[in-house]
Design goal:
Layout: E1 5-7, E2 10-23, H1 30-45, E3 51-54, E4 61-62, H2 69-74, H3 86-98, E5 103-108, E6 120-127, E7 139-148, H4 153-166, E8 169-180, H5 187-197, H6 212-215, E9 225-228, H7 230-237, E10 249-254, E11 257-262, H8 278-286, H9 306-313
Antiparallel strand pairs: 1-2, 2-7, 2-8, 3-4, 3-5, 5-6, 6-7, 8-9, 9-11, 10-11
Helix pairs in contact: 1-4
Amino acid sequence: MRPLASQAGAPVLFSALGAYFHLEHLEPDDEARLDEVNDLIWDWFGSELNLTTMSCAMEPMAARRKHLDYISSYAGRLDAPAQATPNEQFLINNLTKFGRNDFEVTLHGEGDGRSASPFGYAFWSEIAPVLAESTRLPARACLRLTVPDDGDVEDFAARVTAIASRLRFRWGAAGFTYSMQRLNGADVPCAAIYAHARRFVGYDVGFHIRNMDKLHGQLRSVNWLTFLGEELLRRVTGPAAALADRDQVSVTSVGAGVVLRAGLGPRRGDINRLDIPQPYRTADEMVRTVRAPADSELLFLGPWSASDVGQWLERFELRTSS
């Protein structure tokens, strides 16, 4: 595969098929669910993962299956010690938060520490503001995976849906996205995403760091496959209605939620050629009440202005036929 961007002779950005799942606040029993997902990932493309970076490790290291245990075990380490008064509990909750916030485990396809690969698997968590009434830290976490974009899309869809069925997800999106290398700086790959994503509308930019609070209540984007968890589905449909198939978009149950499939396969689109895939536009319209609007103040890395981000978020609202 040809990279979308290189730096000092090393590829730093690839087009990829990928999936992003924004999770419900983690509970202790999510540890078993995440273990199941880790097994699915490792069986799928674990042999392609060569380098691990973790927020709890000083240096990158050769990837091992056991590194995925840091993802699952995190769900069991989110309780602060119980205290006698609410004020004391609030204090100890915030002190405990410092050791749990910005927790990351990322496995890369390349092992040299400077090159990108289409293969990747990552977990990220930010702790929301803590409460004095509970010892549980509210972890807003996500899982993200990428694989080459020239593989069997039906196999990709089946595997991603199987992963979703194990998770308590708030929402998810799967289809074309990017796989980048940021260990040696994000300027070059993020500038390339900025140029590419504003033209090829079928790509999800994937930016989530420092957006976790906002993304807890709204989707960043629809994609070929768009997953809605129980709460966001209820906000879309109301108490009585059901989300039904429409035009080229099918709706299928996945756990307590659903997945919307926009067309037969993922589409890149091309705004320069007035190609804005109609199934994506339809899916976007179906979930628009929970899709991030232009004024959502999401932060995208690179040269994105607030106006640029807003236009990208609303790109499927354009009145242009595919």
